[in-house]
Amino acid sequence: MDFLQANLIYLIPVLGLVGIIVMIVKSAWVVRQDAGEEGMQSLAGHIAEGAMAFLRAEWKVLSYFVIIAAILLAWSGTLVETSSWVIAISFIIGAVISAFAGYIGMNIATKANVRTTQAARSSLVKALRVSFTGGTVMGLGVAGLAVLGMGTLFIIFYQMFVVSTGGNVNGLEMEKALEVLAGFSLGAESIALFARVGGGIYTKAADVGADLVGKVEAGIPEDDVRNPATIADNVGDNVGDVAGMGADLFGSYVATILATMVLGREIISDDNFGGIAPILLPILIAGLGLIFSIAGASLVRIKNDQGDVQQALNLGNWSSIVFTAIASYFVVGWLLPDQLHLRGVSFTSLDVFFSIVIGLIVGALMSIVTEYYTAMGKRPVTSIVKQSSTGHATNIIGGLSVGMESTAVPTIILAGGIITSYAFAGLYGVAIAAAGMMATTAMQLAIDAFGPIADNAGGIAEMSGLPKEVRERTDKLDAVGNTTAATGKGFAIASAALTALALFAAFVGIAGIDSIDLYKAPVLGALFIGAMIPFIFSSLAIAAVGRAAMAMVEEVRRQFREIPGIMEYKAKPEYDKCVAISTKASIREMIAPGAIALVVPILVGFGFKGVFEDTSSAEILGGLLAGVTVSGVLLGMFQNNAGGAWDNAKKSFEAGVEINGKMEYKGSDAHKASVTGDTVGDPFKDTSGPSMNILIKLMSIVSLVIAPHISVGGGSLDAIADTETAIEKVMPNVEQEKAYSLAQKHQ
Amino acid sequence: MDFLQANLIYLIPVLGLVGIIVMIVKSAWVVRQDAGEEGMQSLAGHIAEGAMAFLRAEWKVLSYFVIIAAILLAWSGTLVETSSWVIAISFIIGAVISAFAGYIGMNIATKANVRTTQAARSSLVKALRVSFTGGTVMGLGVAGLAVLGMGTLFIIFYQMFVVSTGGNVNGLEMEKALEVLAGFSLGAESIALFARVGGGIYTKAADVGADLVGKVEAGIPEDDVRNPATIADNVGDNVGDVAGMGADLFGSYVATILATMVLGREIISDDNFGGIAPILLPILIAGLGLIFSIAGASLVRIKNDQGDVQQALNLGNWSSIVFTAIASYFVVGWLLPDQLHLRGVSFTSLDVFFSIVIGLIVGALMSIVTEYYTAMGKRPVTSIVKQSSTGHATNIIGGLSVGMESTAVPTIILAGGIITSYAFAGLYGVAIAAAGMMATTAMQLAIDAFGPIADNAGGIAEMSGLPKEVRERTDKLDAVGNTTAATGKGFAIASAALTALALFAAFVGIAGIDSIDLYKAPVLGALFIGAMIPFIFSSLAIAAVGRAAMAMVEEVRRQFREIPGIMEYKAKPEYDKCVAISTKASIREMIAPGAIALVVPILVGFGFKGVFEDTSSAEILGGLLAGVTVSGVLLGMFQNNAGGAWDNAKKSFEAGVEINGKMEYKGSDAHKASVTGDTVGDPFKDTSGPSMNILIKLMSIVSLVIAPHISVGGGSLDAIADTETAIEKVMPNVEQEKAYSLAQKHQ
Lengths: 747, 747
What we know:
Two copies of one chain form a homodimer.
Chain A: H1 2-32, H2 38-77, H3 86-120, H4 124-163, H5 172-218, H6 230-265, H7 277-298, H8 309-335, E1 339-342, E2 345-348, H9 349-374, H10 379-387, H11 392-405, H12 408-439, H13 441-463, H14 468-511, H15 521-562, H16 575-607, H17 617-655, E3 657-659, E4 662-664, H18 669-710, H19 716-730, H20 736-745
Antiparallel strand pairs in A: 1-2, 3-4
C-alpha cells in the first residue's frame, strides 16, 4: 500500500495502457474474422477508402489550423508568467491524439461492418459479438488514449513545473502545470469541432445530395454502386455517428478530468499523496471506469438467436456503472482526507463519493428520458404520427412542440444534479459528478458505435443480395442501435453540459474572480449575447447543410455527364471526388460557426479588459459562457429530440400505424407529411443539435486557456497574497495555522 | 416654477387625464363618422358583438382569478411588515384598469373598421384619418389610463405610507408605498397574460377552425357569413392584434415605470422635490411622452391619395420620439441634482438623459431590424421563397434558419443598450432607458392598432361587394399595417426585455441581496430551469392551438348539423356560441402555461428559503428570472420573426415571384410549400412568440411582489443598518456626512 501510495501518479497511465492493449487485442480479433465474399469486401473497401479520404482531407486542413493556433499559443504563453510555450506542444499532442482516436474508430467501424454482415450469415450471437467488439475497440481507443495521454502529460508537467521548481502543489506552480494541460484539452476539442460539426454537415450533405440526383434525377435505387455519392453517403454515417460522437466524447472526457483537476488544486487538504489527492482523483476514477468498462463489455453476450440484445447491452452498461460506483467508494475513502475545504465550502470524502454517484445517476436518467421522447410507440412520437394525418404543417408543429417539451424533464434532472452535487461538495462536487458520469465513457461509446456498424452491415447485406435471414438479423441489431443512438445523444449533451460547468468553475478559479454577478449589467448583457450564439450557430449549421448538399448535387451531375459508361457499370464513378467535395464543402462551411466558438471568448475576454471599473472582463466572459451553456444545452436537446421523434414518426409508417381507426402505411399522404418532418429533423438531429455539445465545451475551454491573460489577480505576488486571504476566509475554524505554514513552506 | 416644484406630484395624473380627454374627443369623432349601408353595419355589428362576447366570457373567468389572487395577496400582505392589505386593492385596480383599457381598444377597433371602409369609398386621405384615429384612441386610452392610474395611486400611497408616518422618502416607508404599487402592475400584467396568450390561442383556433370546416368541408368561401366561425375569426384578429398587443404594452408601460421608481428610491440625491425626484422622473417622462404622442399623432396625414402612408406614420413616430427626447433633456436637468449615487455607482443628471436616449434608440433599431427579417423583397424572406421551390421541408428549414439568425443583431442591440445605459447611470440607467423607450407607447400603439383596423376594413369592403377602388385603398393601408405589425412585435419584445431587466433590478433591491452569483451552483441550476420555462411554455401554447382548433371544428360541425337553413341563408348561425367555445377553450388552455408563470417564482422563492447556507432563495430566484428573460427574449424573437418571414414568403407568391428564372404564382407547388410554412408560423408569431413577452414580465413582477416575503434583510432595523453600511460603501469621497445626517433625520 505504501508503494502504491508513492507511485499512484504512475499507475494512471498504466490503466490507460491496459485499455489500449485490450483494444489492440480486440481489434486484431475483429480483423481476423471472415470478411465474406469479394463483392462484400469490395463494397466495404469503397466505404473504408471514402472514410480515409475524408480523414486525409480533414487532416490536411486541420494541420494548418493546428500549426497556426500552436504558434499563437506559444507566443501568448510566453507573455504571462503563469503560462508557457509548453502549452503549444500540449495543444498539438491533444489534437494529434484526438485525430488518432478518430482514425481508430473510423478504421475499426469500416472493418467491423462487413465482418458483422458475414457473421450474421451464421447467427445473431456472432453478429452481435463482432459488431459490439468493433464498438468496444472505438470506446477503449478513445478512453485509453485519453487516460494515457493526460496521465503521462500530467506526470511530465508536474515534474517540470512543480517538483523541479520546489513549487507549491496547491499554488501557482501547479496552476501552471494544469494550465499547460488545458492546451491538451483545447487541442482535443478543436479537432472535435471539425469532426462533429464538419461531420454533421458532411453526412447530411452526402445523404441529401445522393438522394436528389441518384433517386430523383437518375432513377437508380438508394445505395446503388453507380451513384458517385453513395459511398459518401455511407461514409457519412460513419463520419457522423462514429467519428463525430467519438471526438465529442473524447473532448468531454478530457475536459471534465482537466476541470476537476483544476478545481482540485484549490482544495485545502492534508499532505497525503504529496498533497495532490483531489487533483489525482478524477483521472484515477477515469482509469478505473476504463477497466470496469472492459469488464462490462465482456458481459454483453446473448446465449442464442432468441436472446434479447438490448438486455445484453443494458447488463454490460449497468455492470460497468455499478462496479465503478463501488470502486469509487473505496478509492475516495483511501485517497482523500476526511475533511476537505474549497473556497468557503467544507465537505467530507463521503460527500465527494455521493457527488460521483449523482453524476452516474444523471447520465443514466438523461438517457432514459431521451429514449422516451424519441422511441416509437411512446406518447410523443405517437402524437406526431397522428398529427401527420392532417398534413405537413401539423406534423411540423407536432415535432416542434415535442422537441420543446422534451427539454423540461432533462433540464430538471440536470439542474437537480448540479444543485445536489454542489450541496455535497461545492463546485468540486459538480465537477467530480461530471467526472463520475464520464467514467464509463468507454462503455457508452462501445454501445453507441455498435449501432452504425450494425446499420452499415445491414446495408452491405442488402446490396450484396444475401439471404433474407441475414438482413433480419442485422435489422434486429439495427433496431437496438436506433435506440442507443438516441440515448447516446442524451448522454452526450448531459456530459457536455456538466463538462462546460466544470470548465466554467475552473475558469473562474484561474481568472482570479470570486463571483459572476448577474446584477451587473455588463454580465447580464454578456449572458444575452452568449445565449444568442447557439441560435446563430444552429442557423449557420442548418443553412450550411443546404449549401453543401447543392455542391454535392453539382458534382454528381458532372460525373454522370463527363464519365461515360457509369450507368452501364462499365466505368467506376470517382467516389473519392464526391467524398473530397463533401469534405471540402463541410470544412469550408464550418469556418463561420467554428470561428464564432473560437474567437468570441477571446474578443470578449480581451475587448472588455479594464472597460468597466466594477466588472472585470473575466466576469463578463463568465456571463457569456453561462449564456452559451444554458441556451446551447436547451437548443441541443430541442433539436436532437425533435429530430429523433420526427425520424421515428416516419419509421412508424413502415410497419403501419392506426390513425383515427384507419391503418396508414408507407406512401399514404400522412406518411408523406412524416417524411417532411424527417427531412427537417435531419439537420436538427445530425448537424446543429449535436454541434451544441462542441460549441459550449469549446468556448469554455478557450476561456480557460485565456484565463491567465485576463486574470484580475495580476502577477504571482498578488496571487499569493490572495491565497493567504482566501485561506483566512475559508478556514475560520479549522487548522488555519497549519494552512498558513503550508502556504509559507511552499513560497 | 416654485409652484410647479411643490405640486409636481399632482401634475402627473393631470397629464394622464389630458390623454384621456383627447382620447374621448377622438373617439367621439370616430363614432360620428358615417358607418355606411346597413349590410356593412350588420357585418361590423356581428364582429363587435363577438368581441364583446369574448370580453364578457374572459371577464367572468378573470373575476374569479382576481378575487382569489386578491385574497391571497391581502392575507400574505399582512404577514410582513413591508407590505399590507392595500396591495390587494392596488392589484384589483390594476386588473380592472387593464381590462378597461382592453375594452376601449376593442370597442373603438370594432367601430373604426366599418367607418374606415366607408371613408375609403371617398378617399385614401380620409380612410387613413379614420383608421389611424381609431388606433390613436387605443394608444391614448392605454397610456392615459396607465399614467392617470399610477400617478393617482402613487400620490395616495405616498401620503398613506410616507408622509402620514413621517417616514423616510428613501427608506422602508417609501419601499412599502412602491411595493403596494407593484400590486397595480401585477394586476395589469395578470390580465395581459389572459389577453395576450388567451387571445393568441383564440385567434389561431378560430382561424384554423373556420378554414377547416368552412372552406374544406362545407365548400363555402373564406369570410362567408354562413360560417358560424367566421365572426370568431374576424373577432380573433381584433383580440390578438389589438387587445393582446394593447394589454401587453400596458403591462410593460406600467411595470417599467414601477421598476424605475423602485430603483429611484435607493438613489441618494439632494432634498429637492421632497427628495423623490429620481422616483418621479420615470412617470413624469411617461406623461410627457403621452403629450408628445398626441402631438406626433396630429402629424400623421397625407395630402392626397398619392401620399405615402408609411412616411406619414414615420413622421408622426419620429416627431414624438424626438420631442420626447428634447423634453427629457430639460426635465432631467430641472428635476435631478447634478450628482446622484446608487449602490456604489455615481452619475450625473446628464448621464441619466443619455440613458433615456439610448432607450429611444434601442426601440427604434429593434423595429428596423425586425422589419428587415420579415419584409417582402429583403434577403431573409426571399431565401425562404427560393427554398419553397424544393418542397415543404426546405421551406421549413429555411424559415427556422432565418428565425434563428434573426436573433443575432437584435440581441447585440439589446445587450449594447443594457451595457451602455448601465455605463452611464448604473441600474437606474438601464431602467430609465426602458422608461424612455416606453415613453411614446401611445404613439407605438396607435401605429400598431391602425393595421388590424385597416385589415378588417378591407374584409368588410370585400364581403359587402364594394367597388374595386375601395378595396385598393384599404389594401394600401393594410400593406403598411403588415409592416407595422412586424415592427410592433420587435418593439414589444424589446420593451418586455428591458422591462423584465428593470423589474429584475428592482427585485434584487427589495429582496435585500447584493448580487446574483452564477458561480454558486443553485443559481446556475435555477438559470437552467428558468431558461427551460419558455420552451415548455411555447410547447404548451403551440399544442393548445391545435386542441382549441379541434374544439372549434366540433362546434361548427354541430351547428351545420343541428340548425337547418344555415346554408340557404334562412337561419342565422349562432356566432356567439362559436365565440364562447373559442374563448372558453382558449382560457382553459391558458391555465397550464399561466400557472407556470405565476407559480414557479413562488415555489422557488419560498421552496429554497434557508435551504442553502451561502445562497438565499432570493438569489436563486434571481438566477431563475435571468434564465427566463434571456431564453424568453430569444425564443420570442425566433418565433415572431420566423412566423413573420414565413407569412410574407407565402404572400410573395400572390404577386408572383421569380425562382431560378421561372415565375411562380399562387397554386404552384412552391406556393403550397410556402402555405405549410405559413401555417407552422401562425402559432409561432401569434401565440407562443408574443406570449414570451408576458411570461418574462409576469414572472418578474410576481417575484417583485413576493420579494419582501423572501427578503434576506429581515426586519426594518436590519434594513436601516444596511442602509448605513451601504452609504459608507457608496460614498467614500462624496458628502458622506450629509448623507448620514439625511439618513438619520428620516429615522
